[in-house]
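idk why but the lab printer keeps eating my pages so im just putting this in chat instead. protein + NDP:
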Amino acid sequence: MTTVGFIGLGAMGRPMAANLAAEHEVYVHNRTASVATEHAAAHGTTAVDLAGLAPVEVVITCLPTTAEVLEVADELVDHLADGTRWVDCTSGDPAASVALADRLAEDGITYLDAPVSGGTDGARQGTLTMMVGGPAEVIEELDHVLDRLAERIVHVGDVGAGHAVKAVNNTLLAANLWAVGEGLVTLARSGVDVGRALQVVNHSSGRSFASEVLVPQRVLTREFPATFGLGLLAKDTRLGRDLVSASGARAPVLRLVTELFQVAADELGDDVDHTAALRLIERWADTELS
Ligand code: NDP
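predcted complex ->
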């Protein structure tokens, strides 16, 4: 049994910390403290302030952006023991995480960037895919903790590589989602039944996770369940664009998709589900997908 501190009990963090508590001693911390207290009552974790995380061997963060991780690090670092491992499951900024890893190393703390994919269902079921940047031996050492969260753990490179892969993955998600929306609105306006069109696309080469799962389950049902905020996906696309710039690659589609999701978040708000971005395409075409 390992003593784990979990910071950030949002849509992802709540079920992730609950899964860890089935096997490990888990201390939880959240900005709104009542969320941590409720988690403790429901899952046998212990709600603490940041100073209360002093005894943990492993810190896990699952916060909206790297800005919140840095904020927490400023206050937490003095409380942690030499040898503590820090696993950052936030979809964060690769360059800022490299700098944070260097800073934490001065206090004997090893930082891994370990963002996850699989949504709130994957978080509940412990079936996430985790992409990890950092030293291989530390990832191996933490396997008994990480395997409570993820069924697939891929070491993608040095610190920063996990966040880089996540940024590109989610920019691809955004590109696919937006493209399916445009394609289906075009077909609807051409008199084609959208459900039948999807039956074809989803058995043809134009299919994607967006066409197979997100659009049928969230858009055509008009449910748009807010499990992954549009603001968070817009943030991921900005990280993708920044990575494109830093890499020197020419990637005009990835840059454009960043702009589109920023407009969507500005128009529709950060807190709606990411699939609600398609409402903007519908609005522009005066056509509802159903
Ligand atoms: P949420 O917005 O649902 O939750 C964020 C949590 O962080 C909230 O509980 C919030 O507290 C807490 N928090 C914010 N700032 C602080 C702080 N300074 N100190 C302590 N706690 C803080 O986000 P998600 O759980 O959806 O996402 C978390 C990360 O995972 C993001 O980087 C996201 O991009 C990524 N992700 C999300 C997925 C999803 O499907 N939702 C899928 C894969 C990755 P409060 O209760 O006060 O708001």
